[in-house]
Specification:
about 150 residues; alpha/beta; 7-stranded parallel beta sheet; about 35% helix
């Protein structure tokens, strides 16, 4: 099981995902470019001392990520998802992909995904925070597969 962030724009979200990966023992892939420098002080503050445990892999772009991510289905979390989270069946080697905060995942990421999942929220709500979504999705995936 791995987390992947497509061109994240907010350093605190990446920091929180570093901690998330470290606490649950999963790798984190960051697909660049990001909206900040990865050594940004705010990201370090959000990650606290979990950074060395997070097993973060940086990819220069989408093609590098696709080439190097390894085996497993690519499961895109999106507000345009086809399968509600509570109906989706995860596999242990899935890569959980989350789009950029301001714009989500581009069409080519949707097309490359093996599955698209939506976290059900109230109809009047727009979306959840990236790190919150990653935590919800990862916990459910691990609950099912462990």
């Amino acid at each position: 099981m791995r987390l992947a962030l497509f061109q994240p724009a907010i350093p605190q979200n990446v920091g929180a995902c570093i901690r998330l990966g470290a606490c649950f023992g999963v790798g984190l892939h960051v697909i660049e470019p990001t909206g900040f420098r990865l050594d940004d002080r705010a990201m370090k503050r959000a990650a606290l001392d979990y950074g060395p445990l997070g097993h973060m892999t940086r990819h220069s772009d989408w093609d590098a990520f696709q080439r190097d991510r390894g085996a497993g289905r690519l499961v895109l979390f999106t507000t345009k998802g086809a399968t509600p989270l509570n109906d989706f069946v995860f596999q242990p080697d899935d890569v959980l992909l989350f789009g950029s905060e301001p714009s989500g995942a581009p069409d080519f990421a949707h097309a490359a995904s093996d599955a698209r999942v939506v976290i059900p929220i109230a109809a009047e709500a727009r979306s959840l925070n990236l790190a919150v979504s990653a935590g919800i999705g990862l916990f459910e995936a691990l609950r099912q597969t462990r």
